[in-house]
Write a structure and sequence with these properties.
about 70 residues, mainly alpha, two-stranded antiparallel ribbon, elongated
C-alpha cells in the first residue's frame, strides 16, 4: 500500500468516526431533550441528510465481505 493509499484510508476512517460521533450526539439529544425538538428540523434532516447517509452506508456495506443473514444473501 502506498503512502497515498494510507492517507486516503486514514482520511476515510476519520470521516467515518466524525459521522458516528454526529449520529451519537443527535441520538443523545433526541433521547434526552425530546421535548425541545423542532419537527421542522427533523424533517429537514430527513430531506437533506438521510439521502447522503444512505449513499454512505451503501458504500460502507460494499466494503464489507459478503455474509448471510436469516438465510438470505445481502
Amino acid at each position: 500500500m502506498s503512502t497515498r493509499d494510507d492517507r486516503a484510508f486514514v482520511e476515510d476512517m476519520l470521516t467515518r468516526i466524525d459521522l458516528a460521533q454526529e449520529f451519537t450526539a443527535f441520538r443523545n439529544f433526541v433521547i434526552h431533550v425530546y421535548w425541545n425538538i423542532k419537527l421542522e428540523r427533523i424533517w429537514e434532516i430527513v430531506e437533506n441528510d438521510l439521502p447522503t447517509l444512505k449513499v454512505q452506508l451503501q458504500n460502507l456495506l460494499g466494503t464489507l465481505p459478503d455474509h448471510e443473514t436469516d438465510g438470505k444473501s445481502t
